């Protein structure tokens, strides 16, 4: 592929922003303020910090191995096929959940259309859950997402660039209009008690439960497109940093605009009693800004569609990449010869996303499932980055991170805390879905006569024990996070920090040299040649 066909820095940032700004902004601010009151603004800063710290590790690995669907493969290079499978599976579960979450967002906004002709849409949502008729509409939207991707990649990129301007413009317009038409800074409260009406624990919980981590999650679209990026050694890190910073500023301003534009009399019964089905549109109608409400109803189609469409592509690539790792049936990795798209993987994902939404029927539940699954996949990032330095010091590193020895353990601890904040029983449900993948892994290992199985098992044991321990901690943890309160808040946080540091050191010292590591070396040589060619130009 020639350089002029590859993605420039501008197109990487636009693609990442288009994926980042999906349904998170349409619901996140309201979900977070309902949980934490005005202190929800801190949840967004914390969520951005967690994802930023995790992304830092991936910049080094992503530039060492620029390849399509890379997020599903890195752990395999450092720890062998079992950890690679768990990380790939968890990452894929999170990607498959994004498809229905965006469809649910669209349907939830549709259900509050204020026009008389649209009364029939009211039945789509009841008590914050998608009804059976709403579910049918969600299924139709998932099918449309898949069909847009079923054609060529150019159709997908034209579609996403066209709407990314609308997607980025509307949140900014919403911030300006709401702030100009209704500004009550007093809603932040005049003392700590009013700023933290429900204490500090909900500020932490909101990062996972209100879909904040989900809203920042799309940095991985840049990493998954590794082989299609111009000057990957420079642009991968820059693209992620710029897009996360822009999205972070937009999210913080949106949350602030949401907090300050609510009429103080609406807060008489507290933040927990603000009930919106279509938060910003309902707020615009409450303030009498009907034209903005109409734009928001349109955006509730456009934003989720943009994100849903781009993630159908990512999820299909992730599934095809797992087949490449040798633990899924071959037909899933089959590429369409004309367009180089894994169409079968796409159809399988569409069916599974329908199953997902039938099980978890609300936006916030899907957002929590997604955050927890994503974070479990991300746990391998810092561990892999550090383990590769130990087992492959000779590998070419286009970017050698200066502060990896500090950021890697920090990001592992932050990810562990955020998994715990997803709250029991969601934690065990997600970990259950991830452990469900193990029989598939064992089936394929048995077909390969368990070659080097012991080596792979020992290298990945830390992760299996970790998942069991974190489930037990979630069950016995404080009431604030849905547990049995055997561990009280905030001591439960301290226990998680200490235990996860132990697992981080176990994991980062478990790296092994396997056949996959040898394959990674070849890919790394290719990255080196690319970098030399870029420098020569």
TrEMBL record:
Superkingdom of origin: Bacteria
Membrane topology: Multi-pass membrane protein
Stored InterPro entries: AA/rel_permease1 (IPR002293), AA_Transporter_AGT (IPR052962)
Key words, A-Z: Membrane, Transmembrane, Transmembrane helix
Annotated transmembrane regions: 7-27, 39-59, 80-110, 130-150, 162-184, 204-223, 235-259, 344-363, 369-389, 401-421, 427-444, 456-477, 489-507
GO cellular component, one term: membrane
Ligase keyword on record: no
Pfam families named among the record's database cross-references: AA_permease_2
GO function term, MF aspect, one: transmembrane transporter activity
UniProt subcellular location: Membrane
PANTHER family (alphabetical): ASPARTATE-PROTON SYMPORTER (PTHR47547:SF1), PTHR47547
Protein name: Amino acid:proton symporter
Organism: Bombilactobacillus bombi
Lineage start: Bacteria, Bacillati, Bacillota, Bacilli, Lactobacillales
